[in-house]
């Protein structure tokens, strides 16, 4: 579980599928009101407070982006707390419930994004991937890492699991979105990144 502060009232949490499976949660459970998900959200908010000082008091807007290859990105935005609500002897009792007054929206994405610390490792991955991919991939430099961006249409039918396996072996799933890459990253290769890398860089012996 990785937590990043996006602003005073907004954080982003990246959950891998391992994070979910360790807690006995399936991807489909994330938009259901079940105790396991409630416990996970409590854990996320505790960790967010401890790591980045995010106070989850008040109504929260929660956006969940399901990324099939990487896991889930959860964007939590804190709304304005209504100080008139619950005024009276039970005000303190009402506060815990307020923390979980959530509005949840979900989006599915088939985009594949993996980051690489070392360009030499990316070269190796590209050569392994090339037989599976024809003309595929965009390459960005973002936060000191090389980020490879693949769309589902770049992959031949049935090759998806094999491609993910290679990417997971050489790189690391990242929670950054294509929109963030385009806005804050530097586009190094706009198309056919796999082919361009393989044509210009040899594998290490």
From TrEMBL:
InterPro entries: MecA_C_sf, Neg-reg_MecA. It comes from the Bacteria. Belongs to the MecA family. This is Adapter protein MecA. It comes from Paenibacillus woosongensis. The lineage of its organism: Bacteria, Bacillati, Bacillota, Bacilli, Bacillales.
């Amino acid at each position: 579980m990785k937590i990043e502060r996006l602003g005073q009232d907004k954080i982003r949490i990246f959950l891998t599928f391992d994070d979910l499976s360790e807690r006995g949660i399936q991807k489909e459970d994330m938009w259901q009101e079940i105790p396991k998900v409630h416990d996970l959200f409590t854990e996320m908010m505790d960790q967010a407070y401890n790591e980045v000082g995010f106070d989850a008091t008040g109504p929260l807007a929660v956006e969940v982006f399901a990324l099939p290859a990487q896991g889930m990105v959860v964007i939590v935005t804190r709304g304005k707390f209504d100080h008139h609500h619950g005024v009276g002897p039970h005000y303190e009792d009402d506060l815990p419930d307020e923390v979980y007054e959530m509005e949840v929206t979900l989006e599915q994405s088939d985009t594949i994004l993996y980051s690489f610390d070392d360009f030499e490792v990316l070269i190796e991955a590209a050569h392994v991937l090339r037989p599976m991919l024809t003309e595929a991939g965009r390459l960005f430099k973002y936060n000191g890492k090389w980020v490879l961006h693949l769309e589902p249409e770049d992959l031949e039918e049935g090759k998806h699991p094999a491609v993910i396996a290679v990417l997971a072996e050489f790189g690391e799933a990242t929670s950054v979105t294509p929109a963030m890459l385009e806005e804050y990253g530097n586009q190094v290769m706009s198309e056919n990144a796999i082919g361009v890398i393989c044509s210009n860089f040899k594998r290490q012996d």
